[in-house]
Design goal:
Length: 213
């Protein structure tokens, strides 16, 4: 086997190993095949005017800038743990008003990783309660990356872990907000949430749900 072929074999092996480490992808949607003006059929609307829209040549799932309430959508498989979900989100502020948006697991009343722009925080919610938070400065008119996972550590203990960063900057190596859960999570689907406090649309793109080993 010459060095060129050996290099290709090694690259393929490393790629396969990396894919295994990341876990099997269970759901993906970049909305490129979505029908403008409609919500993809496999998604469950909880409330709000979510619909596929084309923005600057790219299709996204958009939440309109009004009314000013919290709205959400469910997607992906129904599981209790061993899942990770990710999304990228874009919005803008208007004057002093800034949006809030979140990524969730375990259904409507499950865990949510929320960017609360006005409070300069990334907050971890369990239902309606904040269980952890860390400082985070959101930038208007930029894409923000969010990742959230729920995994079993051992019997009677689960780790809820989240991270957020501006697209184009390095992904944090460690989870920036965490919570040790003693109760077994309730099975549910992944979710995205938005509250357009600024009165401007919130765009969601590149949804992905994967298994956590």
């Amino acid at each position: 086997m010459n060095k060129w072929i050996a290099g290709i074999v090694l690259t393929l092996a490393l790629t396969a190993t990396a894919a295994e480490d990341k876990g099997k992808v269970l759901y993906q949607n970049d909305f490129s095949k979505g029908e403008v003006g409609k919500l993809p059929e496999e998604m469950l609307l909880l409330d709000g005017g979510f619909a596929v829209q084309e923005v600057a040549g790219n299709k996204v799932l958009q939440l309109p800038g009004a009314p000013l309430e919290t709205f959400g959508v469910l997607f992906g498989p129904t599981e209790a743990s061993s899942l990770a979900v990710s999304v990228r989100v874009h919005s803008t502020k208007k004057g002093r008003r800034e949006p809030a948006f979140a990524l969730g697991l375990n259904g409507n009343a499950g865990y949510k990783l929320q960017i609360s722009a006005a409070k300069k925080l990334v907050e971890l919610y369990k239902g309606d309660d904040v269980i952890a938070s860390v400082p985070f400065t959101w930038e208007s008119d930029s894409w923000t990356m969010l990742k959230l996972q729920v995994r079993k550590v051992k019997d009677g203990e689960f780790a809820i872990e989240g991270k957020a960063w501006k697209q184009g900057t390095p992904e944090p190596e460690k989870w920036i907000v965490t919570y040790a859960e003693k109760s077994e999570p309730i099975a549910g689907r992944a979710s995205i949430w938005g509250n357009p406090f600024a009165g401007t649309p919130i765009d969601f793109d590149d949804l992905a749900v994967s298994a956590v080993k």
